[in-house]
Design brief:
mainly alpha, single chain, 332 residues
Length: 332
C-alpha cells in the first residue's frame, strides 16, 4: 500500500502506542548514571569515523561535528524542553551562514527572510528529506540514556527546523537507537529495533532500514550487500535519507556491532560516507564500552582536540566534551 509518512509527532506516538510499540524508559535513567560512564560518551568515536572518511590527520572543522556541538550548546542554554524556535535563535546567534549546506542553508535563509519554523523546512527546500537532521541527532540520544522515546521527541523538535518526513524520521531513529545503547543495551540488533519503534512502520524510512537489515543477514560478503542496496536505492540522491539509512542499518547488522567493522562497512558502502561512518561509530562506540576498548589507531590521530567555528568550543578536548555531555545527561 501507499507509505504512511509526514505524520506530526503526536500522530507518530499515537500510532506506535496503539500497537504497544512506543518505547518506555528503562531503569537506567539520567539520575542513575554511574560516574564511570563519563569517559564512555562517544564524541571521539564519532570524530574518528568522520576523520577516516575525510582522509585527514587530526580533527579539523567539519559540519558533521559542528552540529552536535550546537546541540550541546542548545541543551545547555535552553534545557531539554527547548523549542524549535530556540534552536533557530541559536543558529542565528552562533552558526556562521557559510558553515551551512543543503537543507540547513535553505532553512537559515528562510529564517533571515522572516519565515518561522516549521515552515523553514518546507519553503523552497528541495533537500528536506536528506540526511542533515540525522547528523544532528547524536547528542539527543547520548543525553537520554535508557529513554529512547524522549530522545526521539527531542530530535524531532530539532529536525523540523530543516527537514520533513523521512528526513525527520532519520533523526528520531538515530536518537532512539543511541539512547538505547547509552542505557546499557549491548546488542546492536536491539538498538536498531528500538530505532524502528519511533518511526511510522509503513514509512519509506522504516522500509529502508528493514531492507538494509535483511540484506545484511546471511550474506557473508558485504560488497554483495552494498550492491543489493545500490540496486534498490540507486535512484535517490547520494545524500538522501533513505539510501543512507539502509546502508547504516546494513553495516551495523553485518558487523554485529563491532566498532571497526561497522565504520569500515558504512564508509565502504558509498553514498554519504562521513555521515554514515560517524553515526555507525557513535552507536558501535557506545556498545564497545569504555574508550580503552577501542584500537588506539582510531583515537590517537585526533590528539584530543577539535577545531570548530562554534563559539566556545574551538580546540576543545574530547574528554571535556564527554564531561559536558555527561552533565546534561544528569539534568533532571
Amino acid at each position: 500500500g501507499k507509505p504512511v509518512e509526514k505524520l506530526p509527532l503526536a500522530g507518530i506516538r499515537a500510532l506506535a502506542r496503539a500497537t504497544g510499540n512506543w518505547p518506555l524508559a528503562t531503569w537506567f535513567t539520567a539520575r542513575g548514571l554511574p560516574a564511570e560512564l563519563t569517559a564512555a560518551y562517544p564524541w571521539n568515536r564519532r570524530s574518528a569515523a568522520t576523520s577516516l572518511a575525510e582522509n585527514i590527520d587530526g580533527m579539523p572543522e567539519d559540519d558533521d561535528l559542528n552540529y552536535p556541538l550546537l546541540t550541546l550548546l542548545l541543551i545547555q542554554r535552553y534545557g531539554p524542553s527547548f523549542r524549535t524556535a530556540d534552536l533557530a535563535r541559536l543558529w542565528l546567534d552562533e552558526l556562521p551562514a557559510g558553515r551551512t549546506f543543503t537543507a540547513e542553508r535553505v532553512a537559515y535563509r528562510n529564517l533571515l527572510d522572516g519565515i518561522e519554523p516549521p515552515d523553514t523546512a518546507r519553503h523552497r527546500n528541495p533537500f528536506r528529506e536528506w540526511i542533515g537532521a540525522r547528523i544532528r541527532a547524536d547528542v539527543h540520544g547520548w543525553t537520554h540514556p535508557g529513554d529512547p522515546a524522549a530522545a526521539a521527541e527531542q530530535a524531532h523538535r530539532d529536525a523540523i527546523l530543516t527537514h520533513t518526513g523521512n528526513g525527520v524520521y532519520g533523526a528520531m531513529f538515530t536518537a532512539a537507537a543511541l539512547a538505547e545503547a547509552a542505557g546499557g543495551e549491548t546488542d546492536v540488533h536491539g538498538c536498531l529495533a528500538t530505532g524502528l519503534r519511533v518511526v511510522p512502520p509503513r514509512s519509506r524510512f522504516a522500509h529502508a532500514v528493514r531492507t538494509g537489515i535483511d540484506a545484511a543477514r546471511g550474506e557473508p560478503d558485504f560488497d554483495a550487500v552494498a550492491d543489493r542496496l545500490h540496486a534498490a536505492f540507486g535512484a535517490y540522491h547520494w545524500v538522501h535519507a533513505l539510501p543512507n539509512a539502509a546502508l547504516l542499518a546494513a553495516a551495523l547488522t553485518h558487523a554485529d556491532g563491532d566498532f571497526s567493522g561497522s565504520i569500515c562497512r558504512a564508509v565502504s558502502g558509498g553514498w554519504d560516507t562521513d555521515s554514515n561512518g560517524a553515526t555507525a561509530g557513535s552507536l558501535a562506540g557506545l556498545l564497545a564500552g569504555r574508550p580503552d576498548a577501542l584500537p588506539v589507531r582510531w583515537t590517537t590521530p585526533l590528539k584530543n582536540r577539535l577545531a570548530t567555528s562554534v563559539p566556545g568550543f574551538d580546540s576543545v578536548g574530547f574528554d571535556a566534551l564527554a564531561e559536558l555531555t555527561y552533565q546534561e545527561a544528569l539534568r533532571p
